[in-house]
Amino acid sequence: MRFQSNSLERRSGFNAKYSRAACGGTLTGQNGLIESVGFPELYYPDNLLCEWFLHGPENHYLTITFEALDIQNSLECANDYLIIQENGATGDLLGRYCGATIPDPVDTASNLAYIKFVTDESINAPGFRLRFAASAEECGGELSGTVGTFSSPNYPNPFLHKLKCEWRIIVPFGHRITLTINDMNFGSSQNCSLNYLAVHNGFGENTPRLSKLCGMVTSGTQVKSSGNKITVVMVTSQDDSEASFRITYTSDEDAVCGGLLLSSENGNLTSPGYDGTSNYIDNLNCEWIIQNPQPSITTIYLSLEDFHLEQHINCQNDYIEIRQGDSNGDLLYRLCGHRTRLEPLLIAASQIWVQFLSNSENTDKGFIMHYSSF
Ligand SMILES: [Ca+2]
Ligand SMILES: [Ca+2]
User: Tens digit of pLDDT for each residue in 39-76?
Assistant: First the structure.
């Protein structure tokens, strides 16, 4: 506001009163309390428009609980009313309230909420008192037992917030993981793009996706990794998505591929099912460690006897990666396509990691390579 006068006429001026809004504001933190003006001793005034902005910690959701409610009752709460919206002033409406019946608590999808209290020009009542509390959902993690169970947050109660959780399972080399769905209900299967479980053949979402599960899944449904690692990602994208699951895993079956090999023992490494004519399958992830048990010998020798993987200019589809040490080591080779000149690979390392990955389409005959050290 600015007052400005020029060089012409003079007048008596102005006198304005100001005061802070009697209601509303921004509440930041883990929890808080909101009341109507004068609650509980006095009735709220007429002609109010009060707005509260609730701001909980990141990655939390808010539970808003009514401790008291007594607002002028009207058809469709048209006269005096309280509304709660999630995600702030432009978010979805969670409820519109009036009368004197205490509603159930409401949960928001995110850490933000907006509350508005509006009254008309006549008839009032004691008002309301609300509390909000922020909660974080704990989920995901790494499991390394040979058998185990994991489930959605708050299982067997349905999970009701937007969330992404990742479970990574690792079992000893040479074993594959069998996941068994004991129970899974992700609500309507029309929402498969929004609410689902994705199972990946290896660690992380960059490994081939074995399955995408959603809706109601028959108890006993199984998904198997090819090697000793698997990842389960749970995605819920709507605030009211119903999601609950319980999965058991075992690891008594032999791996399809991958394992720990000793270079001193000289042997062959092949794509699963390699016979020189038939093709490997889609969505494989095979991880081998080739280790030299004698530290004095630090060279590992790999010769490609036959090599036919799907062609791709950058080896993005099906490929072999060879790294020094383990999966986090320096990348030495990334191979794909057809190799007719089978040059031997001499690698100056006492341990290497070899990964073969196939994507969801187009396969070829695969490969056979010989490993040794001398
Ligand atoms: Ca009123
Ligand atoms: Ca492929």
Answer: 999 999 999 999 999 999 987 889 999 999 999 999 99
Return the residue matching tokens 């001398």.
Answer: 374
Whether 185 and 214 have beta carbons less than 8 Å apart is answered as no
In this structure, the number of other CB atoms found within 10 A of the CB of residue 101 comes to 10
- Looking at the CA of 280, name the nearest ligand: 2
pLDDT of residue 130: 97
Q: 160 - beta bridge partners?
A: none
Amino acid letter, residue 178: T
Measured in Å, residue 80 CA sits from the centre of ligand 1 at: 5
Per-residue burial over 328-340, b = 16 or more CB atoms within 10 Å of its CB, e = otherwise: eeeebeebbbeee
Query: Token pair of 238, please?
Result: 């709507």
Nearest to 105 by CA among 114, 94, 92: 94
Pairing verdict, β 141-143 and 81-86? unpaired
- Tell me the whole-structure pTM to 2 decimals: 0.69
Beta-sheet pairing, 81-86 with 112-118? antiparallel
DSSP tag of 243: B
Note whether 294 and 321 are within 8 A (CB): no
Sheet holding 344-347, edge to edge: 267-270, 366-372, 300-308, 344-347
pLDDT digits (tens, 9 = 90+) for 327-370: 999 999 999 999 876 678 899 988 999 999 999 999 999 999 99
Neighbours of ion ligand 1 (CB under 5 A): 72, 79-80, 119-120, 123
What letter would DSSP give residue 228? S
Q: Is 29 left (phi over 0), alpha (psi -120 to 50) or beta?
A: left
Least distant ligand from the CA of 98: 1
Q: How far is ligand 2, taken at its centre, from the CA of residue 202, in Å?
A: 16
Q: How far is the CA of 289 from the centre of ligand 2 (A)?
A: 23
